Amino acid sequence: MLRQEELAKNDANMEQVTGSNFDKGFAQWQGYQQAPWGRLRYRVAQANLQRHLPPPPGRILDLGGGNGLDSLPLVKMGYTAVLLDFSQEMITQGQKLAAQEQVNDQISFQVGDAAQFVADEQFDIILCHNLLQYVGDVTAVLQNIYQSLRPGGIFSLIITNPHTETLAYALRDYDLMAAQDNLTQTTKYVPTFDTHIQRYTDDELKTMLQQCGFTLLEQYGVRAICDFMADNERKFDPDFYEQLEALELAVSNQYPYKLLARFYQFICQK
Ligand SMILES: C[S@@+](CC[C@H](N)C(=O)[O-])C[C@H]1O[C@@H](n2cnc3c(N)ncnc32)[C@H](O)[C@@H]1O
Questions:
Q1: Domain residues for 227?
Q2: Site to substitute for ligand 1 among 21, 127, 134, 159, most atoms within 8 A of C-beta
Q3: What digits encode the pLDDT tens for the residues 195-216?
Q4: The domain spanning residue 232 has which CATH number?
Q5: How many domains does the chain contain in total?
Q6: Test site for ligand 1: of 131, 144, 160, most ligand atoms within 8 A of the Cβ
Q7: Integer angstrom CA distances of residue 3 from 141, 160, 165, 189, 256
Protein backbone atom coordinates (compact mmCIF):
# COMPACT_ATOMS: atom_id res chain seq x y z
CA MET A 1 0.00 0.00 0.00
CA LEU A 2 1.24 3.51 -0.82
CA ARG A 3 2.18 5.68 2.13
CA GLN A 4 -0.52 8.27 1.16
CA GLU A 5 -3.22 5.58 1.23
CA GLU A 6 -1.94 4.43 4.61
CA LEU A 7 -2.20 7.99 5.95
CA ALA A 8 -5.71 8.42 4.52
CA LYS A 9 -6.77 5.23 6.30
CA ASN A 10 -5.16 6.58 9.45
CA ASP A 11 -7.57 9.49 9.47
CA ALA A 12 -10.61 7.22 9.33
CA ASN A 13 -12.51 6.56 12.53
CA MET A 14 -11.49 3.47 14.50
CA GLU A 15 -13.55 0.63 13.02
CA GLN A 16 -14.92 -2.47 14.69
CA VAL A 17 -12.24 -5.17 14.58
CA THR A 18 -13.32 -8.81 14.65
CA GLY A 19 -11.72 -12.24 14.50
CA SER A 20 -12.12 -12.24 10.73
CA ASN A 21 -9.55 -9.40 10.41
CA PHE A 22 -7.03 -11.78 11.95
CA ASP A 23 -8.27 -14.87 10.06
CA LYS A 24 -7.63 -13.07 6.77
CA GLY A 25 -4.23 -11.73 7.84
CA PHE A 26 -2.90 -15.05 9.11
CA ALA A 27 -0.67 -15.97 6.13
CA GLN A 28 1.07 -12.58 6.26
CA TRP A 29 1.32 -12.80 10.05
CA GLN A 30 3.01 -16.19 9.80
CA GLY A 31 5.48 -14.74 7.27
CA TYR A 32 6.33 -12.04 9.83
CA GLN A 33 6.78 -14.60 12.60
CA GLN A 34 9.28 -16.57 10.52
CA ALA A 35 11.29 -13.53 9.39
CA PRO A 36 14.37 -12.56 11.45
CA TRP A 37 12.53 -9.61 13.06
CA GLY A 38 9.63 -11.87 14.04
CA ARG A 39 11.98 -14.47 15.51
CA LEU A 40 13.73 -11.73 17.49
CA ARG A 41 10.39 -10.52 18.89
CA TYR A 42 9.59 -13.98 20.37
CA ARG A 43 13.15 -14.79 21.46
CA VAL A 44 13.73 -11.55 23.37
CA ALA A 45 10.25 -11.49 24.96
CA GLN A 46 10.72 -15.06 26.16
CA ALA A 47 14.14 -14.28 27.68
CA ASN A 48 12.75 -11.22 29.48
CA LEU A 49 9.79 -13.16 30.83
CA GLN A 50 11.84 -16.07 32.08
CA ARG A 51 13.76 -13.82 34.46
CA HIS A 52 10.54 -13.45 36.46
CA LEU A 53 8.61 -16.70 36.21
CA PRO A 54 8.09 -19.07 39.11
CA PRO A 55 9.38 -22.55 38.22
CA PRO A 56 6.85 -24.94 36.58
CA PRO A 57 4.29 -26.31 37.13
CA GLY A 58 1.91 -23.34 36.92
CA ARG A 59 -1.19 -22.18 35.07
CA ILE A 60 -0.87 -19.66 32.23
CA LEU A 61 -3.56 -17.60 30.51
CA ASP A 62 -2.43 -16.31 27.08
CA LEU A 63 -4.97 -13.62 26.22
CA GLY A 64 -5.16 -12.80 22.51
CA GLY A 65 -2.55 -15.53 22.22
CA GLY A 66 -2.82 -15.95 18.44
CA ASN A 67 -1.17 -19.17 17.24
CA GLY A 68 0.61 -19.67 20.55
CA LEU A 69 4.24 -18.74 19.83
CA ASP A 70 4.60 -17.20 23.29
CA SER A 71 2.80 -19.85 25.35
CA LEU A 72 3.93 -23.03 23.56
CA PRO A 73 7.60 -22.72 24.64
CA LEU A 74 6.37 -22.33 28.23
CA VAL A 75 4.08 -25.34 27.93
CA LYS A 76 7.09 -27.34 26.70
CA MET A 77 8.87 -26.32 29.92
CA GLY A 78 6.12 -27.88 32.07
CA TYR A 79 3.46 -25.17 32.55
CA THR A 80 -0.14 -25.70 31.44
CA ALA A 81 -1.99 -23.02 29.50
CA VAL A 82 -5.31 -21.67 28.30
CA LEU A 83 -5.05 -19.63 25.10
CA LEU A 84 -7.99 -17.36 24.34
CA ASP A 85 -8.35 -15.61 21.00
CA PHE A 86 -11.26 -14.44 18.85
CA SER A 87 -9.70 -15.58 15.54
CA GLN A 88 -10.67 -19.15 14.64
CA GLU A 89 -7.77 -19.33 12.16
CA MET A 90 -5.19 -18.34 14.82
CA ILE A 91 -6.63 -20.98 17.15
CA THR A 92 -6.63 -23.71 14.47
CA GLN A 93 -2.99 -22.98 13.64
CA GLY A 94 -2.07 -22.94 17.35
CA GLN A 95 -3.73 -26.33 17.81
CA LYS A 96 -1.71 -27.71 14.90
CA LEU A 97 1.54 -26.45 16.42
CA ALA A 98 0.63 -27.90 19.84
CA ALA A 99 -0.03 -31.28 18.20
CA GLN A 100 3.28 -31.12 16.32
CA GLU A 101 5.09 -30.36 19.56
CA GLN A 102 3.14 -33.16 21.30
CA VAL A 103 1.89 -30.83 24.04
CA ASN A 104 -1.79 -30.66 23.07
CA ASP A 105 -2.85 -32.20 26.39
CA GLN A 106 -1.13 -29.32 28.26
CA ILE A 107 -2.77 -26.41 26.44
CA SER A 108 -6.44 -25.70 25.75
CA PHE A 109 -7.69 -23.22 23.16
CA GLN A 110 -10.82 -21.09 23.51
CA VAL A 111 -12.42 -18.90 20.87
CA GLY A 112 -13.62 -15.80 22.70
CA ASP A 113 -13.46 -12.04 23.09
CA ALA A 114 -10.78 -10.80 25.49
CA ALA A 115 -13.00 -7.81 26.31
CA GLN A 116 -15.79 -10.11 27.54
CA PHE A 117 -14.03 -13.13 29.01
CA VAL A 118 -14.78 -14.30 32.53
CA ALA A 119 -12.15 -16.59 34.07
CA ASP A 120 -13.35 -19.41 36.30
CA GLU A 121 -9.93 -19.79 37.95
CA GLN A 122 -7.00 -17.58 39.01
CA PHE A 123 -3.85 -18.03 36.94
CA ASP A 124 -0.19 -17.97 38.03
CA ILE A 125 0.93 -16.17 34.86
CA ILE A 126 -1.01 -14.06 32.35
CA LEU A 127 0.37 -13.01 28.96
CA CYS A 128 -1.18 -10.15 27.00
CA HIS A 129 1.14 -9.73 24.04
CA ASN A 130 0.23 -7.30 21.27
CA LEU A 131 -3.48 -7.47 22.03
CA LEU A 132 -4.30 -4.25 23.90
CA GLN A 133 -3.67 -1.94 20.94
CA TYR A 134 -6.62 -3.61 19.17
CA VAL A 135 -9.00 -3.30 22.12
CA GLY A 136 -11.40 -0.38 22.72
CA ASP A 137 -11.63 -0.39 26.53
CA VAL A 138 -8.07 -1.11 27.65
CA THR A 139 -8.72 -0.38 31.31
CA ALA A 140 -11.60 -2.90 31.44
CA VAL A 141 -9.33 -5.63 30.00
CA LEU A 142 -6.52 -4.79 32.43
CA GLN A 143 -8.94 -4.88 35.38
CA ASN A 144 -10.22 -8.26 34.20
CA ILE A 145 -6.64 -9.55 33.95
CA TYR A 146 -5.95 -8.34 37.49
CA GLN A 147 -9.00 -10.24 38.78
CA SER A 148 -7.93 -13.38 36.91
CA LEU A 149 -4.39 -13.41 38.34
CA ARG A 150 -3.61 -15.01 41.68
CA PRO A 151 -2.00 -12.79 44.35
CA GLY A 152 1.74 -12.81 43.62
CA GLY A 153 1.11 -13.90 40.02
CA ILE A 154 3.09 -12.52 37.06
CA PHE A 155 1.61 -10.44 34.24
CA SER A 156 3.51 -9.78 30.99
CA LEU A 157 2.24 -6.98 28.75
CA ILE A 158 3.71 -6.34 25.29
CA ILE A 159 2.49 -3.43 23.19
CA THR A 160 3.82 -1.28 20.35
CA ASN A 161 5.98 1.74 21.12
CA PRO A 162 4.86 4.76 19.03
CA HIS A 163 8.22 6.56 19.33
CA THR A 164 10.08 3.83 17.41
CA GLU A 165 8.06 4.47 14.29
CA THR A 166 9.07 8.13 14.14
CA LEU A 167 12.73 7.17 14.43
CA ALA A 168 12.46 4.30 11.95
CA TYR A 169 10.73 6.47 9.31
CA ALA A 170 13.52 9.03 9.66
CA LEU A 171 16.64 6.91 10.21
CA ARG A 172 15.82 3.74 8.25
CA ASP A 173 13.50 5.06 5.53
CA TYR A 174 14.71 8.70 5.19
CA ASP A 175 10.98 9.59 5.06
CA LEU A 176 10.97 12.75 7.11
CA MET A 177 7.35 13.66 6.32
CA ALA A 178 6.17 10.30 7.59
CA ALA A 179 8.27 10.82 10.72
CA GLN A 180 6.71 14.26 11.22
CA ASP A 181 3.15 12.92 10.68
CA ASN A 182 3.77 10.11 13.11
CA LEU A 183 4.39 12.56 15.94
CA THR A 184 0.75 13.63 16.09
CA GLN A 185 -1.12 10.42 15.31
CA THR A 186 -2.79 8.49 18.11
CA THR A 187 -3.88 5.64 15.84
CA LYS A 188 -2.05 3.76 13.10
CA TYR A 189 -3.32 1.64 10.23
CA VAL A 190 -2.03 -1.96 10.26
CA PRO A 191 -2.25 -3.42 6.71
CA THR A 192 -1.77 -7.06 7.82
CA PHE A 193 -5.04 -7.02 9.74
CA ASP A 194 -6.75 -4.15 7.85
CA THR A 195 -7.51 -2.22 11.01
CA HIS A 196 -6.21 0.61 13.17
CA ILE A 197 -4.37 0.28 16.43
CA GLN A 198 -4.41 2.67 19.37
CA ARG A 199 -1.02 3.89 20.56
CA TYR A 200 0.05 4.66 24.09
CA THR A 201 3.26 6.00 25.57
CA ASP A 202 5.01 4.07 28.31
CA ASP A 203 3.96 6.71 30.85
CA GLU A 204 0.29 6.22 29.92
CA LEU A 205 0.63 2.46 30.15
CA LYS A 206 2.44 2.56 33.50
CA THR A 207 -0.30 4.81 34.91
CA MET A 208 -3.02 2.40 33.74
CA LEU A 209 -1.17 -0.59 35.20
CA GLN A 210 -0.69 1.15 38.53
CA GLN A 211 -4.34 2.25 38.67
CA CYS A 212 -5.43 -1.36 38.13
CA GLY A 213 -3.31 -2.43 41.11
CA PHE A 214 -0.26 -4.02 39.42
CA THR A 215 3.28 -3.57 40.73
CA LEU A 216 5.77 -3.02 37.91
CA LEU A 217 8.76 -5.35 38.37
CA GLU A 218 10.66 -4.36 35.20
CA GLN A 219 10.14 -2.48 31.96
CA TYR A 220 11.91 -4.02 28.96
CA GLY A 221 12.16 -3.19 25.29
CA VAL A 222 11.88 -5.77 22.52
CA ARG A 223 13.88 -5.08 19.32
CA ALA A 224 15.80 -1.92 20.05
CA ILE A 225 18.32 -2.26 17.20
CA CYS A 226 16.86 -4.31 14.33
CA ASP A 227 14.16 -1.86 13.27
CA PHE A 228 16.64 0.94 12.62
CA MET A 229 18.73 -1.16 10.22
CA ALA A 230 17.69 -0.64 6.59
CA ASP A 231 19.39 -3.73 5.14
CA ASN A 232 16.84 -6.47 5.80
CA GLU A 233 18.69 -8.99 3.63
CA ARG A 234 21.64 -9.11 6.01
CA LYS A 235 19.35 -10.10 8.86
CA PHE A 236 18.75 -13.45 7.09
CA ASP A 237 22.48 -14.28 7.27
CA PRO A 238 22.77 -16.79 10.18
CA ASP A 239 26.01 -15.31 11.59
CA PHE A 240 24.69 -11.76 11.41
CA TYR A 241 21.37 -12.85 12.94
CA GLU A 242 23.17 -14.55 15.82
CA GLN A 243 25.10 -11.36 16.63
CA LEU A 244 21.98 -9.24 16.32
CA GLU A 245 20.05 -11.53 18.65
CA ALA A 246 22.88 -11.38 21.22
CA LEU A 247 22.87 -7.57 21.03
CA GLU A 248 19.07 -7.34 21.35
CA LEU A 249 19.18 -9.62 24.40
CA ALA A 250 21.95 -7.50 25.94
CA VAL A 251 20.10 -4.17 25.60
CA SER A 252 16.50 -5.24 26.36
CA ASN A 253 16.63 -3.93 29.94
CA GLN A 254 19.13 -1.11 29.42
CA TYR A 255 18.51 2.62 29.14
CA PRO A 256 18.07 4.31 26.71
CA TYR A 257 17.62 1.35 24.36
CA LYS A 258 14.54 -0.10 26.01
CA LEU A 259 12.70 3.19 25.56
CA LEU A 260 13.36 3.13 21.80
CA ALA A 261 12.52 -0.52 21.12
CA ARG A 262 9.71 -1.54 18.75
CA PHE A 263 7.70 -3.00 21.63
CA TYR A 264 7.42 -2.20 25.30
CA GLN A 265 7.34 -5.24 27.60
CA PHE A 266 6.12 -4.65 31.16
CA ILE A 267 6.53 -7.44 33.69
CA CYS A 268 4.16 -6.87 36.60
CA GLN A 269 3.08 -8.66 39.75
CA LYS A 270 -0.25 -8.71 41.55
C1 LIG B 1 -0.95 -9.14 16.76
S2 LIG B 1 -1.71 -10.64 17.18
C3 LIG B 1 -0.74 -11.18 18.56
C4 LIG B 1 -0.88 -12.65 18.83
C5 LIG B 1 0.02 -13.19 19.95
N6 LIG B 1 -0.29 -12.63 21.24
C7 LIG B 1 1.47 -12.94 19.62
O8 LIG B 1 2.03 -11.94 20.09
O9 LIG B 1 2.02 -13.74 18.85
C10 LIG B 1 -3.17 -10.05 18.01
C11 LIG B 1 -4.06 -11.20 18.41
O12 LIG B 1 -5.09 -10.69 19.25
C13 LIG B 1 -6.31 -11.29 18.87
N14 LIG B 1 -7.38 -10.36 19.28
C15 LIG B 1 -7.52 -9.05 18.97
N16 LIG B 1 -8.58 -8.51 19.60
C17 LIG B 1 -9.11 -9.53 20.35
C18 LIG B 1 -10.21 -9.60 21.24
N19 LIG B 1 -10.98 -8.54 21.50
N20 LIG B 1 -10.45 -10.79 21.83
C21 LIG B 1 -9.68 -11.88 21.58
N22 LIG B 1 -8.63 -11.86 20.74
C23 LIG B 1 -8.35 -10.69 20.14
C24 LIG B 1 -6.21 -11.50 17.37
O25 LIG B 1 -7.09 -12.47 16.90
C26 LIG B 1 -4.75 -11.90 17.23
O27 LIG B 1 -4.56 -13.28 17.33
A1: 3-269
A2: 134
A3: 999 999 999 999 999 999 999 9
A4: 3.40.50.150
A5: 1
A6: 131
A7: 32, 20, 14, 11, 29
